[in-house]
Protein: Glyoxalase/bleomycin resistance protein/dioxygenase
Amino acid sequence: MITSENTSNLPGWIDLGSPDAGASAEFYGQVFGWTAENLMPESADGPGYWSLKKDGKQVAGLGGLTDPSARPDWMTYIRVADANATVAAAESNGAKVRVPVTEVPGEGSMAQLTDPSGAEFALWQSGGTTGFEACCVEDTMLWAELWTRDPAAAKSFYPALFGWQVEPYMEGAPESGGYDMWTMQPGDPLAAFGGIMTITDQVPIQDEKWIPYFMVADADRTVERVSAAGGAVLIPAADAPPGRLAALADQFGARFNILQPAPMG
Structure:
């Protein structure tokens, strides 16, 4: 599962690229109760960066868009022990480097890549900052889901790069209609940290994309708050085996999902 510990080859951070960081901070404050702390002021050298916190613990980042034409969206970071070596391995497996390994003084190193099918993701090599201080609790990230038209390519690329394994959510489900999970420990249902969603003509997300899921106490109330704050409902709240979930977007179109986990037992 996703963890706040400095565990390599698992999702360890997310951040949001926004055309208006102040407005985005207000939106997510209304929806999840997050607060924003400025870490890097806006300047001629960059658009600024904020830490988003829940109950005083860091849960995500927020930055202005360096390219005004870029689409506002969430970026998923995978923690790695050696960013340079991982970038080299990614390139040898067909990925493209969008941002080379860059040191964040005193914090760590990052890089941004695009997988062979077009989904963007990032790497984080911890220095002074490991990433999440809280996750898998209410109003924090719970799950990382890859939306793709080519699940077979994803099942080749990411295991080769990070050592991930693929496990069906439900044993015996047909390959064409089942749901596969990312895990490092097959057989342990609590070890899974993400999944693979096949893009079809019927779904609202049509681009190759990593989508974060945030855990919530009440999916329906969260959907109401998203709408009241100016966001969009892409898929209304509905019951599914893991709980009640919905697909949403903020006021600038950045996509995210929510999950109200089903009661255990």
Q: What stands out?
A: Residues 141-261 form a domain with the 2,3-Dihydroxybiphenyl 1,2-Dioxygenase; domain 1 fold (CATH 3.10.180.10). Residues 21-32 form the longest helix (12 residues). The CA atoms of residues 77 and 232 lie 25 Å apart. The chain has a mean pLDDT of 94.
